[in-house]
Amino acid sequence: MALETLEQFVKIINEPIRSKKPLVIVGFPGIGLVGNITCQHIIEELGMKYVGSIDSKYFPPLAVLFNGIVYMPVRIYEAPEKDIVLIISDIPIHPTASYDISKVLIEWMLKINANSIVSIAGIATTTGERRVFGGATNTEWLDKIKDKTEIFQVGTISGISGSIMTECFLKGISAVSLLGETPGPNPDPRAAVQVINVMNGLFNLSIDTEKLLSQADQIELELTKLAEQVKTTETTSTPRKEFPMYG
What we know:
Blueprint: H1 6-9, E1 10-14, E2 23-27, H2 34-46, E3 49-56, E4 64-66, E5 69-71, E6 74-79, E7 84-89, H3 95-111, E8 116-124, E9 132-136, H4 139-145, E10 150-151, H5 159-171, E11 175-182, H6 189-203, H7 210-214, H8 216-237
Parallel strand pairs: 2-7, 2-8, 8-11, 9-10
Antiparallel strand pairs: 1-3, 3-6, 4-5, 6-7, 9-11
């Protein structure tokens, strides 16, 4: 029997990317759903166009619906006039799958000539603050973020966000990790607002966050329901150890 290649386990299907050397922003579910909320708001504010999706045997068996329409759970968007490509996921990625998926993602980013990569996630603390912690794959980007974030001095970035940063380091790609501080696992739009503020300062995006703040309570409720639905689907369809809600 022929062995399946990594590309057969993780498939990326997209329209031609028009951006020449794009900034690539990546947000997967994790603590506080900070990456997911941040990326969804950026998509809406920039009017980004859906250009593709990512599918994998590693993903849990489910469909994502918005207003009755089925969408792929991991999607690619682009704002070519701003040279921005964004990857957003509505499903968590199990830690054991993160290595393979991140390798395919980074290879794809190299093919589209990505200039820099920003991986967005959350970090749980008990301080009650909403700071943004930062890390980078090289000293050049560390210098750029040191005045805009709390540098993550010692620690680990878990899950696919960590795998993406490691793969970028191995490939010599400029990448930044932005970790929005949150008090717990519940969806946290306020942490996402702080991450967007940092993004605005780093990349001159001028993304307004007033709408996100005003809808924070509603977003928290809707995303909590979605997270519970995903968790229930994964628990009933696979052994519990296969797909916990958050790595």
